[in-house]
Amino acid sequence: MNVSLNKNNTTVARVKLLIGGEWVESQTTEWLDVVNPATQEVLAHVPFATAAEVDAAVAAAQKAFTTWRHTPIGARMRIMLKLQALIREHSKRIAVVLSAEQGKTIADAEGDIFRGLEVVEHACSIGTLQMGEFAENVAGGVDTYTLRQPIGVCAGITPFNFPAMIPLWMFPMAIACGNTFVLKPSEQDPMSTMLLVELAVEAGVPAGVLNVVHGGKEVVDGICTHKDIKAVSFVGSTAVGTHVYELAGKHGKRVQSMMGAKNHAVVLPDANREQTLNALVGAGFGAAGQRCMATSAVVMVGAAKQWIPDLKALAQKLKVNAGSEPGTDVGPVISRRAKQRILDLIESGVQEGATLGLDGRDITVAGYEDGNFVGPTLFTGVTTEMQIYTQEIFGPVLVVLEVDTLDQAIALVNANPFGNGVGLFTQSGAAARKFQSEIDVGQVGINIPIPVPVPFFSFTGSRGSKLGDLGPYGKQVVQFYTQTKTVTSRWFDDDSVNDGVNTTINLR
Ligand code: NAD
Fold this sequence. Notes:
InterPro entries: Ald_DH/histidinol_DH, Ald_DH_C, Ald_DH_CS_CYS, Ald_DH_N, Aldehyde_DH_dom, MeMal-semiAld_DH. By secondary structure, the chain is α/β, with parallel strands linked by helices.
């Protein structure tokens, strides 16, 4: 164990780096506390790696690539099979650590790990996922085929809100494709990520194939500008994701940036009332609203607005408590800073004239008085100019807008710059078909509030929620983590006829 939960602040573990197969204590002078958001207990100290340590991690990955790229696909696949078995075996133990450092409930922490485990399971199919294409006889005796080759050292930069799922979106698929990897987990909750990395090492990922450096802006910028890194996967906020996309792109890397969101749920009056209200409350307030696919704006169409009192009543019933307490629905938000930002945005909503139907600001949780809690908060009478609508709040705050028709709802959603997820609630197939066709959002749920695709598909957020063409996991990420090489070949029989010099570009 390189990290552990420890109630004594003076002896908490220092989170290690992983470089070339060695667990290394950073030589940095800059350390950050990893804090339990329900109690403010310091769980560990995380280093901000030095530039030399980042260089060493990339060099280890570069060295390992020379052999790993030639490791047979079956051998890579068997490591993924072992890794998925180990994650399954250790999931409950990791969920406890994840809940402690991130704040989400134990059940949701297990879900965080499970959604990442599904990607590892899919990585076990790399044999068929990484196949090239073949066309016989494209010209006389000429065949053309493609190889999907690994690209080299890839890097991943991950956010705090899914410390298991999002690292597992990245390194298993990159490694299964034959690349080596440098991971930079969120500095706010790196411990559960490290437990997964330990399992990867135990599963047989060779030294240097997976490396981990910790840190913030300087380490991220070091990754984005490093000459030996070929591709960068980023998940996090829009401001940082845009910076990473531009900086890494300028330095010649492939980049995919999955970023912030404002996800709408459009409710038609013919929807199943109870199921819809359950979905809105679960997706709006689950994980304290700290999901990139959380429902954060509800658009009530026509008579659906009559359901607002029921929505409020259901939200009011949610139990706010530490994630480790049984029966908790809503845990704390990640940090005091995050809480203050949420409170400021709520205040802006009040100042800008929205109606605060449910106010979660003054909540105290018995036994956890120091926790970063915000109770479920509901605004009605919201307009599209208000900051509570234009900003991603990333807290347990749901804003409700009202329109008269489905067309108006579609126009409203399409005018919002984000395009991560959207839900439609209806019993009308015709309305659903029109919606899925006309809505300009990359991931659509029909009576599904959080439509995160399973890993045989890809995560396809769009517009302001994503930069780069290819999304994480699924077939798209195999394209992202491989280079297509096209081979055009011709073999001569011993008795082939001399067909002379060809000075044209045509194959014949
Ligand atoms: P964040 O952008 O603050 O941090 C993400 C990563 O960037 C971290 O590893 C962090 O160390 C690093 N970082 C932070 N500031 C930096 C800077 N100035 N320069 C360079 N690197 C920096 O995001 P977060 O608060 O950890 O995560 C929440 C955000 O992530 C939300 O906006 C959420 O919507 C988004 N998110 C998006 C998706 C998606 O798939 N679209 C999934 C999960 C989370």
